[in-house]
Amino acid sequence: MTDTPSLDRPAEALDALRAALAAAGPDLPPDLLVFGDAIPERNLQDWSRQPPVRPLALARPRSTQEVAAVLRACAQTGLAVVPQGGLTGLVRGAHPVAGGVALSMERLTGVEEVDAEGATMIVRAGTPLQQVQQAAEQAGLFFPLDLGSRGSCSIGGNVSTNAGGNRVIRYGTARDQVLGLEAVLPDGTVVNALNRLVKNNTGYDIKHLFIGAEGTLGAITRIALRLQPRPAALDAALCALPDYASLLGLLSALRARFGPGLTSFEAMWDEYLDTIVSTFDLRRPFAAAHRFYAIVEISRFGAGDESRLPDALGELMEQGLIEDALIAQTEREAAAFWQIREIVGDLRQKAGPLVSYDIGLPAGVTDRFVETSAARVRAQWPDAMHLAYGHLGDNNLHLIVRSPACGSDQPRDGFDRAIYDTVREFGGSISAEHGIGTTKRPYLGHSRSPEEIAVMRMVKRALDPEGRMNPGKVLEG
């Protein structure tokens, strides 16, 4: 497999692509393809903010049939294809390749069907996550996948990267919300696996080939989602803790007390909260400084049930596990807690270039990992910012690293080696929810065995023998 399989001469490649599409049928819209300078700037890169790449063409289909026509035409002309969703990824997974075609799902949107009795939904891949959530709510149900980029990211991109988010501890990742899907293979074949049954034990489960594959095996076009009962209320609290053992103790205590009612458990190290509060001029939640903080969210399903969270936190405070706690009395107060966690997406605009990490670690070693990785980074860059936070309840840690002295030229390669080598030592995963793309590709072997990678290559060769589908992503060429 090569990184950018395409024709050598762009003009001839464009002519060949136009001719192949024309042969596909007269019903294709004239604005299906955009070329050259007419390609919007937003389609030249994702949120990784790596140098933009202008593809040979941008395809914007409105239907599965148009997606299939584009992929057949690209197969006939030997052009690479890079699927694009909301372009909110951070690992260059949707970055176009020069000489290839960017396949944007921005027009393939809409909720096709909501089955309230069966608690399922059929949705097109380009639909923003927030629109999916709203459609479920209007039907009296709940779609639990939730990310800070909910208004921008697409459900197809969420599924393609197996996104996680804030409620994995209760509901699982994107994979756990999918009953079935429809995808188009690199040769244009449409695979309709839109299963809507929770129990369907009929051979290989085809959907799992495409979930988490980051568009390297085909383009997801439609998805059958599993919906959940809508909580009657969500109770939120911000807790302050003296040490990491207390943080783990709080997590264990809440799990034992509330079981599946524990919807979110977001941990923040003190350096993270201090930096966010000062950078964005937010009100400090507590008068005193603390070592650790946690945002807790509890779901209640009984319409008349009173919140049990105040009593639970009061008991834990008496035991010395919690130093202080704030319990949200309104949705606005709960949103203020979550703002401390979600505003981090804007830190780049305030602080300047930085490098972010999304890793998985056993909860018991996470604090030791943070201390070790910080020491290794600062041994080379003494002024480095090293911020830790994440979904501790599902083993997901996020890091932000930046050396102010390096300015706009952050030493990403050096940071990567320090962080990912430490991840390997602690038995973790180099990616918990953002995917591999190209930025983590050299380190895939830190988390996957040679045998696993060999199987991945077998699947890739079977479905995309020419290596044209999102080339260079996930696996080395």
Weakly predicted, low-confidence segments: 1-6
Shape label: globular
What is the CATH C-level name of the domain at 111-229? Alpha Beta
Mean pLDDT: 94
User: Level of helix content?
Assistant: 25-40%
Keywords: FAD, Flavoprotein, Oxidoreductase
Protein name: FAD/FMN-containing dehydrogenase
Family: Belongs to the FAD-binding oxidoreductase/transferase type 4 family.
Domain FAD-binding PCMH-type: 50-230
Defining key terms:
seven-stranded antiparallel sheet, 18 strands, Vanillyl_alc_oxidase_C-sub2, Uridine Diphospho-n-acetylenolpyruvylglucosamine Reductase, domain 3, Alpha-Beta Plaits, alpha+beta, five-stranded antiparallel sheet, FAD, disordered N terminus, 14 helices, 477 residues, FAD binding, FAD-bd_PCMH, oxidoreductase activity, 20% strand
Protein described:
The protein has 14 helices and 18 strands. With 477 residues, the chain is α+β, with helices and mostly antiparallel strands. Among the domains are: 111-229, Uridine Diphospho-n-acetylenolpyruvylglucosamine Reductase, domain 3; 233-344, Alpha-Beta Plaits (2-Layer Sandwich), CATH 3.30.70; 352-446, Alpha-Beta Plaits, CATH 3.30.70.2740. Helix 1 packs across helix 2 (64-77). The chain is globular. Keywords: FAD, Flavoprotein, Oxidoreductase. It comes from Albimonas pacifica. This is FAD/FMN-containing dehydrogenase. Pfam families: FAD-oxidase_C, FAD_binding_4.
Topology of helices and strands:
Elements: H1 10-24, E1 33-35, E2 57-59, H2 64-77, E3 81-84, E4 101-104, E5 111-115, E6 120-124, H3 129-138, E7 141-142, H4 155-160, H5 168-171, E8 178-184, E9 190-193, H6 207-210, E10 219-226, E11 228-229, E12 233-241, H7 244-258, E13 262-269, H8 270-279, E14 292-300, H9 309-318, E15 324-327, H10 331-342, H11 347-351, E16 355-360, H12 366-380, E17 385-391, E18 396-402, H13 412-425, H14 450-463
Parallel strand pairs: 2-4, 3-4
Antiparallel strand pairs: 1-2, 5-6, 6-10, 7-11, 8-9, 8-10, 12-14, 12-15, 13-14, 13-17, 16-18, 17-18
Helix pairs in contact: 1-2, 12-13
